[in-house]
Amino acid sequence: MADVTRPRRLAAVLAAAALPLLVAPPAHAAPPAGACHDPEPAHPTVAAQPWAQQTLSPERAWPHSRGAGVLVAVVDSGVDADHPQLNRPGKVLPGRDFYLAGALPGAFDCVSHGTGVAGIVGADPVPGIGFHGVAPDAALLPVRISDRDVGDQGESLRIDPQVVANGIRYAADQGAKVINLSLAGHDDFPVIRDAVTYAVARDALVVAAAGNAQKDTSGELPSYPAAYPGVLGVGAVDIDGARLAGSQIGPYVDIVAPGAKVLTTTRAGGHAYVDGTSFAAPFVSGTAALVRSAWPELSAAQVTQRLLATATPARGGRGSHAFGAGIVDPYRAVTDGLDPAKPALLPAFVPQPPDRARLAQAERERDTAATAKWLAVGVGGAVVVAGLVAVVVPRGRRRRWRPGWAAPVPVEPAAAEPPEQVFLV
Predict the structure, then answer these.
(1) Is 43 a catalytic residue?
(2) Predicted model pTM
(3) Could you report the per-residue pLDDT of 87-128, keeping only the tens digit for each?
(4) Of 65, 76, 160, 293, catalytic
(5) CATH of residue 109
(6) Which of 29, 170, 315, 401 is 20 to 30 A from 40 via CA?
(7) Which domain holds residue 227?
């Protein structure tokens, strides 16, 4: 998403939109009239299974946890709750819009950024579509703090730090166990720092994108809120496990996740391929939801330790400022040590008394077999002797028992050796 700094003036948009919005809040996810500066057009659906889902394979953890009972706050551009993979009743809560004036919900989106983040966290699997979220049974709380992620010229838009802080505090007050912040900036704003501290003190696991401003690897850039205490900072990798160009480097990078050409949900029901640490962060947030559902007794800090301890080693080695602990692993994060109880003691071995009758029977069978063997040998030997007698005795009588002599061997003439010869070789 955009950098966090002073707001842009949108007085014209707000003046045109505020009155009808206050009078008739929307009942569904369609943007209210005048709420979107330039709504992103619909995207087609994509059936292919994306590489990130193939690599992380979060469904392996689903027999143990699907994220049920965990509320994940998406502090972003809103969430299109009408998307077919997000419209199951109870999945996307109404939330709140802190960007526009009035008591508006956050369950609409003008640019798809927040919808894409929410989809990676918890989109339902549906037949014929390869994409799905990491924790499909988690509840999503949309907290809208911006209407766009980039400006008309492609520049990153600035977001009011107070609006971001209000959104974070609201998410913590609503009981969010995971708060996803797919936003980053170079400045340390006390109001956001205090809001993060507020959320962490309420046992919310705050996950933040590391940022996409890295030009080369010669230096390290600051990044907030990823660098705040208690925040889990997320960098991005591509399909080959290499750092995504632009994914920032620094001590705030605790872990990495897919962030290059990852597929996700868009507003108005479609899908799109996206890049950036903004979309790596929700893979970690979804995994945190799986863990918090499977291990509800763990604190946010303990869940963080578990995510880092079970990460897959990455290219930079463990603890590098580019890759952190490695690539998030949903299956290991949920299942490692799933049964914490010690194995039960085996009962003491008690030898059974021998079966005398069975042993005696076995001894008789062995004796019978040995007797039969020797009888067979004796009979065979007698047959051989009788055969020899039948042949030798008649011949001896005919010769009157005189010894016989073998015929002399004829003497062969000496072979004539050929003369020495010379061969061409």
Answers:
(1) no
(2) 0.75
(3) 999 999 999 999 998 889 999 999 999 999 999 999 999 999
(4) 76
(5) 3.40.50.200
(6) 170
(7) 49-335
